[in-house]
Structures are given as structure tokens and as C-alpha cells.
Design a protein that fits this description.
With about 325 residues, this protein is mainly alpha-helical. It has two domains: about 220 residues, Rossmann fold, CATH 3.40.50.620; about 80 residues, Tyrosyl-Transfer RNA Synthetase (Orthogonal Bundle). Helix content is about 55%, strand content about 10%. The chain contains 14 helices and five strands. The protein has a three-stranded parallel sheet with strand order 1-2-3. Helix 1 links the parallel strand 1 and strand 2. It is globular. It starts with a strand and ends with a helix.
């Protein structure tokens, strides 16, 4: 019985943080280890340029660091194909062809387009590349005839647009592309240390590679229940980001204990943060050990990337042969 193929990617715009780990990467690892899917995960370096076109000097380094973080966290190149988007030039060709048939109105009504423009208001994003990135994203997905795309609910509009583009191509030319399904994932809402969305652009992230005093300092700086001014004040764990992190890193018994003690002021925020810092450090220690190993064995990382690129390229070339025949070029 053949495995269903899934595909997803990340933009190499900087170091990965714990929001990336729990929002996407851990789900990729679980899907890989389920034995149900043929997994393709790619570094979306062309997508990074849609918003970082004026500062590309760190992209190559970010690509390497991203793959190191992936395999250190648990992605297995023996189970998943890990590749770099720009190494498979067929993505650009399919993007070009799909852009010819995608109505402009489909892109202009994309809610994520407006949200990202607002979030990155300090950058000039009035470019064709930024408006058209969902078409490139569609090319990324349907190139591999993916059955599904693991996404959070906020990314559903992207998958729906990909589905529409696939249907339009099939209608105009030939039934080549399966219409991909969104594989909805439960994404925990991890905020940054300042209480806003965890983001590299906000400088409020806890990175996967953070350790020692850096990690301790960031966790000790995290916002907690804003209504709790003193240790003697009862707290509300439901609105505390530190408690949310405990839900991911501490045992169920400890989480229940913290919930009870916080509500009756039996534990202070400082002690709660110290416990969290210890648990996060313990959980990340094996990841850090693997990161250190790969940093001193770059030949292995380069080999993983090259093998993934070759496998992805072979499939992409086969797909584009079909596409060219269908379009009569």
C-alpha cells in the first residue's frame, strides 16, 4: 500500500523559535513517525525573498541552520525528504505557468496578504512577488502531487487558493494535479516573552538553540498574569503564558499542581518561571547536543540537503514533463 504524500515548508528568515517548534516542526516529526505518509519538507528560500528582498545576505546561512535545527529536533532524512526550494528550478517554471491562469482577484482577496502587510508595515511590500507568493506556494505543493498540507487554521486560505489553482489548471488543460487536502493541526498559542505573538521581528522569541543563562534570562523575563502584582495575590493560570508553556514541558501532575497553587497564591511567578526554565532546558538538551554534533559535521548536513534536492528534482522534472505536454509548450 503506497503512502500518501504530504508537503510543507518554512521560510529561512532567521533562527527557529519555540513557536516554530510547537506550531509546525513537532507536527512534521509526528507525521513522519506515524508511518502513514511520504513526507517532503523544504526550506522556502524564494518565499523568504518576498519580504526580505532588500536583505538577502543571511539567507544561505539561515538555510543551513534551519536544516540543522530540523534534524536536531527529530526530522529523519531516512524517513523524510528535506530539500531547498531554489535548488529545484522547476518550481519557478510551474510558478510562471500558474501565474498566467490565476485571476488577480484571487490574490487580492487573500486575507493573509493583508495581515502580513499590516504586520510588516515597516517594509515596502508593494511588489508582484509578495502579491503572487500564494501562486508560488501552489506550485510548491502541486509539483509533488501532494495529498495533503499540514497547516494551522490560520493558513487555510493558502491551501484553499492552491486547491482553486489546481482545479483551474486541470479544467483548462489536463487532469494532472490532485486537489490537496488541508491537514489541520492543533497549534498551541505560544506568545513571546513580552506577551505579543512570538516573532523574530518583535525580538521577543525563545529560540530552539537558546541555552544556559540566555534561556534562563528570557524565561525569567516572560509576562505572566497582568493582574497579579504580588506573590500573595491569587493568579489566573488561564491567561498566563508561562502556564501555557508548562502545559507543553511539565508533567500533567505538575501542571495540575501549579494550577491549584497559583490560584490560591501558594506559588509565586518567580518560582513558577524557575521550574519552567529547568524543564525547557531538560527537554532541549538532547536537541542542543545534536545541534553541536551537526555544527561540527557539516558534511553530513550538506549531504542530507543534496540527497533531498536530488529526490525532489527527479519528481519535479517528471511533473513538468507532464505539464509542458498539457500546455503544449
Amino acid at each position: 500500500m503506497s503512502l500518501k504524500r504530504i508537503l510543507s515548508g518554512m521560510r529561512p528568515t532567521g533562527k527557529l523559535h519555540l513557536g516554530n517548534l510547537h506550531g509546525a516542526l513537532q507536527n512534521w516529526i509526528d507525521l513522519q513517525n506515524s508511518g502513514k505518509y511520504e513526507c517532503f519538507y523544504f526550506v522556502a528560500d524564494w518565499h523568504a525573498i518576498t519580504s526580505e528582498y532588500s536583505s538577502t545576505e543571511n539567507i544561505k546561512e539561515n538555510i543551513i541552520n534551519m536544516v540543522i535545527a530540523w534534524v536536531s529536533a527529530g526530522l529523519d532524512p531516512q524517513k523524510s525528504t528535506l530539500f531547498v526550494q531554489s535548488a529545484v528550478k522547476e518550481h519557478a517554471e510551474l510558478f510562471l505557468l500558474l501565474s498566467m491562469i490565476t485571476p488577480l482577484a484571487w490574490l487580492e482577496r487573500n486575507p493573509t496578504y493583508k495581515e502580513m502587510k499590516a504586520e510588516l508595515s515597516n517594509k515596502d511590500l508593494s511588489t508582484f512577488g509578495f502579491l503572487g507568493y500564494p501562486v508560488l506556494q501552489a506550485a510548491d505543493i502541486i509539483m509533488y502531487k501532494a495529498y495533503g498540507v499540514p497547516v494551522g487554521i490560520d493558513q487555510l486560505p493558502h491551501v484553499e487558493l492552491t486547491r482553486e489553482i489546481a482545479r483551474r489548471f486541470n479544467f483548462l488543460y489536463k487532469e494532472i494535479f490532485p486537489v490537496p487536502e488541508p491537514l489541520l493541526t492543533s497549534v498551541p498559542k505560544l506568545l513571546g516573552i513580552d506577551g505579543r505573538k512570538m516573532s523574530k521581528s518583535y525580538d521577543n522569541s525563545i529560540y530552539i538553540g537558546d541555552r544556559g543563562k540566555v534561556l534562563q534570562h528570557k524565561i525569567s523575563s516572560m509576562f505572566t498574569d497582568p493582574q497579579r502584582m504580588r506573590k500573595s495575590d491569587p493568579g489566573n493560570p488561564e491567561i498566563c503564558n508561562v502556564f501555557t508553556f508548562h502545559g507543553l514541558y511539565s508533567s500533567q501532575e505538575k501542571v495540575k499542581e501549579i494550577d491549584i497553587e497559583c490560584r490560591k497564591a501558594g506559588i509565586g511567578c518567580t518560582d513558577c518561571k524557575k521550574m519552567l526554565a529547568k524543564r525547557v532546558a531538560e527537554e532541549l538538551n538532547p536537541v542542543h547536543e545534536r545541534m553541536d554534533y551537526y555544527m561540527s559535521h557539516m558534511d553530513e548536513i550538506n549531504s542530507i540537503i543534496e540527497e533531498g534536492n536530488k529526490k525532489a528534482r527527479k519528481i519535479a522534472q517528471q511533473t513538468m514533463n507532464e505539464v509542458r505536454a498539457a500546455v503544449n509548450i
